[in-house]
């Protein structure tokens, strides 16, 4: 049995990093019909370029078209599929049963992956999709490992599961909080708009979630509406709707034995650094387990060095681990500073992402799960040495010949 490591690609740039750091396949969204409207996403031209690039590496690209379709979306979607059908995407991720049936009839050559939004939780549903000609089912996140084994024993269809990243508090991601809290009809007269509220409804099931579950809420008594009473569970307050992030790196061998074909990392909205570092950790884990070994604790610790919420193993195991965060904020100690664009005779051509000072402790990370602490840091900007690099500047790191796609990060002082 072969296993696929599937990483997010919110843009062509992120796709390139995902493949460089060990992904077998990526999933990407177009400018419409994807559940990540705020991501950069791909134009048709970019999608053609991305598919060609993936196939040149012997890798795969899946396109997410997994919104819940309203009538107004059907004709534009059908026109879109006609345009992208010749490109050779390796699969369409779809949640809408009507669109799955239409695709099977009109474009039987395009593989269909049933989205996790479709909430597939049992053997009979998987058998139904198998008879329909679907290639893969992305299982609901609410399934236990025992339930996954039962499904694997009953069907030959490919099975995919999420193993890492943010989780929606709603059942299989079907949330109406964003729709409700951004609906103009519930705004009070004179209410000041916050960044989360707009003058239009933001539908999570159409890819425009306002992430209302991550907001901080207060209790208000009807006759005392100017007195907000906080929920206080810890010193950080209480995030009653916010879920921890999934992390199954140390348990991946159990999912492999249960019959999962593809291991999916969440994060099309995350940074290049996040995609690269998480991908290289799971690449190491899969390869190590296949060789009969045990993943390095030092490598697993890299998952603590990307921006994340508290971790959980979700619903896979019977010990009922809590999903609710105790700290509503992201945990982030390491800062993504820059990445290498080109190796030069005198050093490395880099693109900065954040401010960089030569007094920082800087580490370079490489795809082979290798980290290099930079002893000497000399920056060349527009031909002149400088002690400070600002965000979005192209500069040369003198004396360090790092390969393209190497990433620079700031190491926190101990």
Automatic annotation (TrEMBL):
Entry keyword annotation includes Hydrolase: yes
PROSITE patterns given in the database record: PEPTIDASE_U32 (PS01276)
Claim: Protease is one of the keywords in the record: yes
Gene Ontology terms for molecular function: peptidase activity
SUPFAM superfamilies: Inosine monophosphate dehydrogenase (IMPDH)
Gene Ontology annotations of biological process type: proteolysis
Keywords from the UniProt entry: Hydrolase, Protease
InterPro entries found in the cross-reference section: Peptidase_U32, RNA/ubiquinone_mod_enzymes
Pfam family, one: Peptidase_U32
Domain of life: Bacteria
Family (UniProt): Belongs to the peptidase U32 family.
Name of the protein in its database record: U32 family peptidase
